[in-house]
Amino acid sequence: MPARCRRRRAACQAAVWVQVLYAAHGNAAAAEEPRFAPWQPLFQGVEGAAGAVAAPRPQAAYAVRIDLQHPAVRLLLTPGNGDAPGETTSQTASEFLTHHKLQAAVNAHFYGPCCAATPEGKDLVGLAIAAGVEVSAAATQGTGVQVLLIDADRRVRLAATSRPIDLQHVEIALAGSHRLLCEGQSVAPADGEGFLGPHPRTAMGTTADGRYLVWLVIDGRQPGYSEGATLRETAEWLLRAGVADGLNLDGGGSTELVTADAAGQPRLLNRPVGRGTAGSERLNGSHLGVFAPALPSDPP
């Protein structure tokens, strides 16, 4: 097969993937029980799925599952910005993906200040380690205490930095607000007002066998399409995605999940409200990305 045909086939595969994802969202919206459609291949070692439900309010959820045992898969957290102001320099998820030539990216840490329309220095909330280098110090209480750690051997564990933990072999660390799942059981707080009410959500976790890292985003603040999830509901979506241990990350207008198309250009999987309108991206303080090979194409 000529190279131009292989590229065209790859582009068609990417387009079909997106169509399948959104069709799954539409079908799930009419389901009596919330669920994810079957996982669909995105790249080698990376799959995606979508789910939706109409009650108690419309929710659209999108997930990416990364096979940590795939030898060609690599992860990248936003690195520090050296001597520039703040700990990192803000980017949209699309900019992060494009700059580092990634195949998928999702927002990660809580950060401040928020929410300038142009790049600026950001300070992350809680522990951040990128490629084995500490970017932000561990929190000892409050938001940022709960962390997800990925060791050099790709072992994923959740921990709390309210007391000292062993970071000797940690390659990536990111901090969130609440532990949502522990060994397959929800430990999320009860629904409430403010932060505990429905919002766009980003969460992350690992399967019981440690093989898969799962990214989850739930859109919100968009009546009739997706109005957001509570932390308890986010934990339930993680369970549906096969997660056993999960963590809530920064949400709201920061919630964003993006993949690369066949030409390496960013494609939004969810519908963020980063600047207050549907489809707009926010300049976030940190993202987690994945490098992965393209799906096999037909032989020449």
Could you tell me how far the N terminus lies from the C terminus, measured between alpha carbons in angstroms?
Answer: 4 Å
**Average pLDDT metric:** 91
Poorly predicted residue ranges? 1-16
Rounded radius of gyration (Å): 18 Å
Tell the overall outline: globular
Structural class: alpha+beta
Count of extended strands: 22
Order of helices and strands: HEEEEEEHEEEEEEEEEEEEHEEEE
The percentage helix is 10-25%
When the domains are counted, the total is 1
Which range does the strand content fall in?
25-35%
What does the main sheet amount to?
Answer: 9 strands, antiparallel
Number of helices: 3
Question: Secondary structure elements and their pairing?
Answer:
Layout: H1 3-29, E1 35-36, E2 40-43, E3 46-53, E4 59-67, E5 74-77, E6 88-89, H2 93-100, E7 104-107, E8 111-112, E9 121-124, E10 128-130, E11 133-136, E12 146-151, E13 156-160, E14 170-175, E15 179-182, E16 185-186, E17 201-206, E18 212-218, H3 231-240, E19 245-248, E20 257-260, E21 266-268, E22 287-291
Antiparallel strand pairs: 1-3, 2-3, 3-4, 4-18, 5-22, 6-9, 7-20, 7-22, 8-9, 10-11, 12-13, 12-14, 15-16, 15-19, 17-18, 17-19, 20-21
